[in-house]
Amino acid sequence: MKIERDDGLGAEAKCDDKKLINRLRRVEGQLRGLERLIESGGECRQVLTQLTAAKAALDQIGIAIVGGKIKECMESENGEEEIDQLLKKFLKGVVV
User: Fold this and answer.
1) Which long-range contacts (CB under 8 A, 24 or more apart) does 91-96 make?
2) 3-state DSSP call for residue 16?
3) Which residues fall within 8 angstroms of residue 43, CB to CB, at 6 or more apart?
């Protein structure tokens, strides 16, 4: 599966499964590091910094996936409705 997205600047970024999996593995490593930091009594500031970095990385992965899906939906019959549903579902998890 190839996921394409337009970053709004006319440049298209192609994210294939392999790249997405690599990104997820990096986030997994960040989370393990965060776990060790908490277990070892790390400073609150360090914990929050690592947590923020992991969340941002996951958000970027989600944006890449949603961007590809939006392009797919735009080409289908029910594109606009599908896009609205997809964005609501994704933003519900991203926006706090």
Assistant:
1) 93/62, 94/59, 94/62
2) strand
3) none
Contact status, residue 46 vs residue 34, Cβ threshold 8 Å: no
Alpha-carbon distance of 85 to 28, in angstroms, equals: 28
pTM: 0.60
Question: Are 63 and 5 contacting, i.e. CB atoms less than 8 angstroms apart?
Answer: yes
What residue type is assigned to position 60 of the chain? Q
CATH code for the domain defined by 2-94: 1.20.58.1000
pLDDT tens track for 11-52: 344 446 788 889 999 999 999 999 999 999 999 999 999 999
Q: Do the beta carbons of residue 63 and residue 57 sit within 8 Å?
A: no
